[in-house]
């Protein structure tokens, strides 16, 4: 007997996608292929936000972090239907509040389900139809299940998870490590150094994330360790590219204009350091990335500072 599931598993839905950048378009392509209706809104497009928001039963934001607060206040002014599910695919931290994107959406729409979508999802590979997996996480199980059905296909395997904060922080904080990893490869520090960086990087992510209220085991899943491995090992990652080019001696001002899309790790590092200082959490790798992005040290100084820290138990 053939036990293969058939996709799509749910009746056609209407998705409004806010932010028609690289990731918004890639996610739109996945759901269109599953037979769902997709309407895009972007600040430079010709569709009105009101039209896209009011027509959607699933509203997905793939706006980069710097645009989230302003977009959600515009959505709030328009209002959402009583059954609308909000999905956020942004991986960043808000400089004003240090909140994640989902926390901002949930504060603005307290009575609506908010679902976080995050995983090892380099958009270029997904656009080519290569297999990938992701996680949809929410406090609202039925909303997460519907979003899982909407996105699942033979190329895109979707898991649900009940820890939205952990899933979102895994995807967000690994961008800081991806910059460090690009530096490591750019300086040709070797495989041992890379393994040490990723392992200690994960420890740092878990220290911050559990202090924030996330579950430790979430960080060993696809959106934590999975996304860390993908992003820190791929030249397709914009964050990795930033680190790699810093190691070649370029400045941030020279690197950022030529990147295809947003490297959220640059802003995330700043916000993370602000939060870690206030809460007195030790984040040695993120601190060196911060100093490097600020132009205070060279990539070689950053490596030396990490290697010469006080010796201690693992
Ligand atoms: N590209 C990828 O492989 C993946 C990206 N992401 C995350 O998705 C988010 C978007 O990434 P990309 O699409 O790659 O970046 P992008 O730079 O291609 O797109 C960003 C989108 O946000 C919009 N935006 C920025 N500021 C805005 C503002 N003030 N008001 C309204 N809209 C604004 C832009 O117009 C654009 O549509 C980031 O948080 C990124 O970390 C997550 C997973 C994979
Ligand atoms: O989050 C991503 C892959 O999961 C994309 O990484 P970059 O934003 O560094 O390209």
From TrEMBL:
Keywords: Cytoplasm, Lipid biosynthesis, Lipid metabolism, NAD, NADP, Nucleotide-binding, Oxidoreductase, Phospholipid biosynthesis, Phospholipid metabolism. It comes from the Bacteria. Pfam families: NAD_Gly3P_dh_C (PF07479), NAD_Gly3P_dh_N (PF01210). It is an enzyme of class 1 (oxidoreductase). InterPro entries: 6-PGluconate_DH-like_C_sf (IPR008927), 6PGD_dom2 (IPR013328), G3P_DH_NAD-dep (IPR006168), G3P_DH_NAD-dep_C (IPR006109), G3P_DH_NAD-dep_N (IPR011128), NAD(P)-bd_dom_sf (IPR036291), TonB_box_CS (IPR010916). GO terms for molecular function: glycerol-3-phosphate dehydrogenase [NAD(P)+] activity. Residues 163-304 form the Glycerol-3-phosphate dehydrogenase NAD-dependent C-terminal domain. It catalyses: sn-glycerol 3-phosphate + NADP(+) = dihydroxyacetone phosphate + NADPH + H(+); sn-glycerol 3-phosphate + NAD(+) = dihydroxyacetone phosphate + NADH + H(+). Catalyzes the reduction of the glycolytic intermediate dihydroxyacetone phosphate (DHAP) to sn-glycerol 3-phosphate (G3P), the key precursor for phospholipid synthesis. This is Glycerol-3-phosphate dehydrogenase [NAD(P)+]. It comes from Laspinema palackyanum D2a. The gene is gpsA.
């Amino acid at each position: 007997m053939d036990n293969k599931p058939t996709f799509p598993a749910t009746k056609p839905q209407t998705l409004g996608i806010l932010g028609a950048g690289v990731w918004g378009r890639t996610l739109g392509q996945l759901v269109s292929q599953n037979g769902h209706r997709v309407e895009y809104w972007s600040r430079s497009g010709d569709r009105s936000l009101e039209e896209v928001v009011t027509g959607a039963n699933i509203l997905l934001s793939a706006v980069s972090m710097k645009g989230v607060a302003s977009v959600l206040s515009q959505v709030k002014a328009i209002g959402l239907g009583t059954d609308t599910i909000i999905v956020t695919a942004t991986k960043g931290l808000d400089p004003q509040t240090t909140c994640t994107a989902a926390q901002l959406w949930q504060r603005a729409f307290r009575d609506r389900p908010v679902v976080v979508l995050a995983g090892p999802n380099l958009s270029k590979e997904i656009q080519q139809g290569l297999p990938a997996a992701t996680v949809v996480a929410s406090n609202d199980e039925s909303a997460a299940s519907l979003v899982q059905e909407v996105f699942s296909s033979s190329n895109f395997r979707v898991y649900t998870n009940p820890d939205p904060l952990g899933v979102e922080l895994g995807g967000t904080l690994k961008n800081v490590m991806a910059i460090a990893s690009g530096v490591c490869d750019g300086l040709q520090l070797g495989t041992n150094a890379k393994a040490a960086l990723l392992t200690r990087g994960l420890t740092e992510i878990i220290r911050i994330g559990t202090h924030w209220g996330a579950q430790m085991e979430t960080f060993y899943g696809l959106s934590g360790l999975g996304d860390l491995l993908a992003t820190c090992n791929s030249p397709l990652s914009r964050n990795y590219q930033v680190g790699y080019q810093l190691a070649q001696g370029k400045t941030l001002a020279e690197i950022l204009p030529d990147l295809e899309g947003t490297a959220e790790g640059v802003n995330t590092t700043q916000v993370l350091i602000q939060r870690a200082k206030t809460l007195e959490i030790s984040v040695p790798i993120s601190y060196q990335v911060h100093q490097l992005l600020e132009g205070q040290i060279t990539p070689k100084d950053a490596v030396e500072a990490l290697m010469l820290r006080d010796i201690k138990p693992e």
